[in-house]
Amino acid sequence: MRGRECSIANALAVVGERWSLLALREVMLGVTRFDAIAANTGASRDILAARLRTLVDAGVLEKRLYDEHPRRYEYLATESGRALQPVLLGLMEWGDRYVTQGPPPTVWEHACGGELHLRAVCATCGEPVGATPSRLVRLGGVDVDR
Amino acid sequence: MRGRECSIANALAVVGERWSLLALREVMLGVTRFDAIAANTGASRDILAARLRTLVDAGVLEKRLYDEHPRRYEYLATESGRALQPVLLGLMEWGDRYVTQGPPPTVWEHACGGELHLRAVCATCGEPVGATPSRLVRLGGVDVDR
DNA sequence: CTCGTCAGTTGGAAATTCCAACCCGCGCCC
DNA sequence: GGGCGCGGGTTGGAATTTCCAACTGACGAG
């Protein structure tokens, strides 16, 4: 069985494996080199190499040659990769509140000068997401009624 | 090596394994029974049982007895679990845009009556997250300068 | 008495991950 | 020129996880 047809599952097929999002976190923080990503995430080098490859193949990261002789590459986020920042930030906010003990260990700064915190709202009404229940209205192109 | 001290990593330690977020998706959609969750996610039953156990232990889900004789349980989202909805929605938006081919296969309805779509904004300035770069300002309680 | 439902558990095979060690092209230093 | 170190990986084998199908156990329906 393959489960429900759903973009959450599709997204997780690309970025849902063990070290993928942590590697992306590093790239978003400006840490773009293999050794540094390995050290900062704690991933083993072979697995990290595999994950970076699938992220590049999926268009989330791109590999850029920053030095010939010897050939050295770094990893940069594509538009697709940058579009994952809300997910990363959502995980961070949630981890800060419900998992991590003590004060938030890492804090990001937004371009506006303040600390970067996520506010997730319904795009239509502007109410914050999460408090109110939601229901499924379409599945596989077919409306469902309950 | 254990990597950077970070709430993203802490969050992923709880909900980052293969089927955890898909199980949570089902619960959020009102599918609360073991067999249905297994069918809708595609997870094998033993792994699903293990994941549900860790989610309950972590306080993301709670197990509720809905029938004695025979004892039957269902899974409900706690406050902590509901607080993960922005993450789920962020993954869905991203998957819709960058992974899934064709129209969004699943659509959620918000309490306001409209389709539920995520808008992720900086909590201080209200600008959408992701367009502008961010940088790390504190790490492990210590400010960093670059 | 048999079949079906629900919530799992069990056992063994298959796939993944972890870890340490290795490789290769170079630059630096003496 | 010999040795050391860096950056970006690859390799091999052991340890861990996952997958899958079958089974359990308590019921209710026919």
Automatic annotation (TrEMBL), chains A, B:
Pfam families reported for this sequence: HxlR
Protein origin, superkingdom: Bacteria
InterPro entries per record: HTH_HxlR, WH-like_DNA-bd_sf, WH_DNA-bd_sf
Segments forming domain HTH hxlR-type: 6-103
Keywords: DNA-binding, Transcription, Transcription regulation
Gene3D superfamilies listed in its UniProt record: Winged helix-like DNA-binding domain superfamily/Winged helix DNA-binding domain (1.10.10.10)
PROSITE patterns: HTH_HXLR
GO molecular function: DNA binding
Keyword Disulfide bond included in the entry's annotation: no
Protein name: Transcriptional regulator
Species annotation: Jiangella asiatica
